[in-house]
């Protein structure tokens, strides 16, 4: 028994309650199925109350999701780190190669710049091997008979005369440097036209100029360029700079030391010179 | 018998319903989804059995309404089912209390299955969704889970001295 606003009433039976609530449910369902505004209002109100519940339900999954994402991210970062490390190493190697390439490019540019020698055409050749000993100053180039290289051909670089071809194989050739003891280059003094011959000494950084008498007008610092006599070397190309002159009264000739102007112990490419008459029919040079 | 509940006790009962609702909507992998028991129904049946003077058709209706909103189903669908379930549970309260645990589980499972049939009927009527065999999976899950729910809630009830 209960009282409501002064009315006393019997506590409603469960069946009565069920009937009431079932009716309410059906009304709600019908209203909701027809998109009734009031039904939507009820749903909205309840939804607001349900929202924290949904958040709570989503929480564990969100946590698991976050954790797994972090783990995956970690793994990915690790992988990426390793990959980038490897890449960096590769790039470092590339960069160091780039430096040498840049040097080479500069050198080649200088070579080509200096290759405009009248009456000759120039071709690049790569140095395959350097054979130097006390009595041999030789280079091996990657051009041979197939490339129309011939014995006695002049070899120069951007700074001066390097030497001449002494033997030719099918695909390679040997060059005798001007520092070889067997080498002699007819030269002329740039300052006063004094003729002389530059001989090699067998040491890579020194040549000598013998057969000049004490009366000869020569000073340290004089530059000797090729005279073109003998027909092997192109005329007017730098050969050597005088460094030291010793005069011995007991000897008829001066003892003159000079340094070759060509950079004999640098770089990897030299120029082969073809006189125009011998110019190659095909104009391709592979260096 | 008709001693009113203290606010703490009300809070505990409310908390049990809220927990059940969270469990009901917590995201699960699809493979487990089918076997999800109807937690709210189980809790509702328990409280109907334990304190039939306090928890009844009205509680079922309200809980069902909240479930409707959570599920996004037609408003009143679960409300009707849960009101019916509460009515059935109240009707069989005395017998349910006397049953041994296994029989109790089967009986509760059957009651919930009846209310589920209500939902399936409404769904097929309103949405034209045909009844599927997979609908029976939660009914089996209910029977399996009931003893656990019963034990936990009885412990809670005794600690909170709800009678």
Structure write-up:
The complex is a heterodimer of chains A (287) and B (163). Chain A is an alpha+beta fold and 287 residues long. Chain A has a domain at 120-278: Thrombin, subunit H (Beta Barrel). Chain A is built from two helices and 14 strands. Chain A has helices spanning 14-33, 37-113, and strands spanning 2-4, 7-9, 120-133, 136-141, 154-156, 161-168, 173-177, 184-189, 195-200, 207-208, 223-226, 238-246, 255-260, 269-275. In chain A, the strands form three sheets. Chain A has a six-stranded antiparallel β-barrel. A six-stranded antiparallel β-barrel of chain A has the order 8-9-10-13-12-11. In chain A, a hairpin with a 4-residue loop joins strand 5 and strand 6. Chain A is rod-shaped and about 155 Å long. The termini of chain A are far apart. Mean pLDDT of chain A is 84; it is low at 278-287. Chain B is an all-alpha fold. Chain B has one domain. Chain B has helices at 7-25, 30-33, 39-50, 57-71, 77-91, 93-98, 101-126, 137-159. In chain B, helix 3 packs parallel to helix 5 and helix 4 (57-71) runs antiparallel to helix 5. The radius of gyration of chain B is 15 Å and the shape is globular. The model of chain B has no long low-confidence stretch (mean pLDDT 89).
